[in-house]
Design brief:
Elements lengths: L4 H7 L10 H14 L3 H22 L12 H12 L2
């Protein structure tokens, strides 16, 4: 029974057509048989894993932003704070 907007969103799926080479389809079908899941389920899992990995990579992009700067982030922060008192 649907009781909220979240329930509707959980049921909503987007049907997508993707052109894949035959060797990819054959490899997918082998995995489907091994994992006993449909091709659609295997592709959903693959997309979810890809998106999860991308999110981690984008989160990590902020690290080392200061590595090529002539001064460190702390000295920059201190100089900006000094401006407040000027």
């Amino acid at each position: 029974m649907i009781t909220s907007y979240d329930d509707i969103q959980a049921l909503a799926k987007l049907r997508t057509i993707a052109d894949l080479p035959q060797d990819s389809i054959d490899a997918l079908d082998k995995l489907c048989k091994k994992d006993q899941v449909s091709r659609a389920e295997l592709l959903r899992r693959a997309v979810a894993e890809y998106l999860s990995r991308r999110a981690v990579l984008e989160d990590d992009a902020a690290f080392d932003l200061w590595k090529d700067c002539p001064r460190d982030s702390r000295s920059y922060e201190d100089s900006v704070r000094d401006e407040w008192h000027s």
